[in-house]
Amino acid sequence: MDSVLAISRRGFLKTAGMAAAAAMIGGGMLVPAPSRAAALDFVGQRQSSVYEADAKVYKIRKSQDNPMIKKIYGKEGFLSEGPLGHTSHQLLHTYYYDRSAGVKALKAKGVQLKV
């Protein structure tokens, strides 16, 4: 069995990675140009139809055009100091609290948690 090629794990992974990359890169080159153009044309048509459908369904497409937002941030509105004001920051900003220590303590007690 001396004729069997000895290859290390690192060598195998390197070769397998290069083969996978070659397959991914070369796979797109095998597609004939007309079908690639047809696929791109289909994507363009799909995008335009989605935009048209959204325009028909949603009358207000931008948040800054929403009349309720304009009223809230208006001169006499609740957040009249503006979108980046102190009150809006206090009310609309979210905070992160690290609760991993409590979860670890529960797991140490044997509590089964569903995540």
Automatic annotation (TrEMBL):
<dbReference type="GO" id="GO:0008901">
    <property type="term" value="F:ferredoxin hydrogenase activity"/>
</dbReference>
<dbReference type="GO" id="GO:0042597">
    <property type="term" value="C:periplasmic space"/>
</dbReference>
<dbReference type="GO" id="GO:0051536">
    <property type="term" value="F:iron-sulfur cluster binding"/>
</dbReference>
<dbReference type="InterPro" id="IPR008953">
    <property type="entry name" value="Fe_hydrogenase_HydB"/>
</dbReference>
<dbReference type="InterPro" id="IPR003149">
    <property type="entry name" value="Fe_hydrogenase_ssu"/>
</dbReference>
<protein>
    <submittedName>
        <fullName>Ferredoxin hydrogenase small subunit</fullName>
    </submittedName>
</protein>
<dbReference type="Pfam" id="PF02256">
    <property type="entry name" value="Fe_hyd_SSU"/>
</dbReference>
<comment type="subunit">
    <text>Heterodimer of a large and a small subunit.</text>
</comment>
<keyword id="KW-0408">Iron</keyword>
<dbReference type="InterPro" id="IPR036991">
    <property type="entry name" value="Fe_hydrogenase_ssu_sf"/>
</dbReference>
<dbReference type="InterPro" id="IPR006311">
    <property type="entry name" value="TAT_signal"/>
</dbReference>
<dbReference type="InterPro" id="IPR019546">
    <property type="entry name" value="TAT_signal_bac_arc"/>
</dbReference>
<keyword id="KW-0479">Metal-binding</keyword>
<keyword id="KW-0411">Iron-sulfur</keyword>
<dbReference type="Pfam" id="PF10518">
    <property type="entry name" value="TAT_signal"/>
</dbReference>
<feature type="domain" description="Iron hydrogenase small subunit">
    <location>
        <begin position="37"/>
        <end position="100"/>
    </location>
</feature>
<dbReference type="GO" id="GO:0005506">
    <property type="term" value="F:iron ion binding"/>
</dbReference>
<dbReference type="GO" id="GO:0009055">
    <property type="term" value="F:electron transfer activity"/>
</dbReference>
